[in-house]
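User: I'm writing a tutorial on reading structure tokens. Could you give me a worked example: one chain, its sequence, then its tokens, then a sentence or two explaining what the tokens reveal?
Assistant: Sure. Here is the example chain.
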Amino acid sequence: MLIKIARVVKSNSHVDYVGRIIDVLDADAPPGADDYGFAQFVSMPMGESEVVGVIYDSLLANPEYGNLGPRLSPRADLAVLSPDYLNEQGVLIGILLLGWRDGGSDSSGSSSKGQTVNHTVPRRVVPVGQEIYRMTNEAMHRFHRDSAGRLMLHYYSQILAGAGLLAVPLLEAIIEQLESACAKEEGRQLSVLRKSLAWQRTMGGMRL
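And here are its predicted structure tokens:
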């Protein structure tokens, strides 16, 4: 079953979107912290296609910060008298788009027959209000397989270009997720890539 975790509220670029996590005022059972952690893959169903992204950043929205004026009502009373005030506080997540899947998916997140996976910049613009769902581990692993069942990571350069200082930690976290379901040879390839990323991180930290 797909878990809805957020809605799109804005974008910073064609591939960099911001979503607001659903809270107790939006749903009876809002998502837990484990559903929208760093490097969590997400999907945004759009008709017969599904845009896929990964959470690469987060931000706490708190308009109350810096407001040192007197409180007219305790927090418990605000939940009844002015719930919109409380709803201004929340969690925002940064989502980097990695590609899309054509052919649609069912309510469980399973891929449809004939579905194709694309690791490239999606052509479609994701609209404000678009619902964001947490991808299951099975769906995430399917997104990393081509039509012949081979492992692919074609969005590598997109992450390096779009995730800034978090690019290397993000790629390392993705590799860790993929290793659990890879064949021995694929595991060796991912291990080499992981060592290369560790070297980049170490050398980058040594620059003056």
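What the tokens reveal: The CA atoms of residues 55 and 95 lie 5 Å apart. The chain is about 30% helix and 25% strand.
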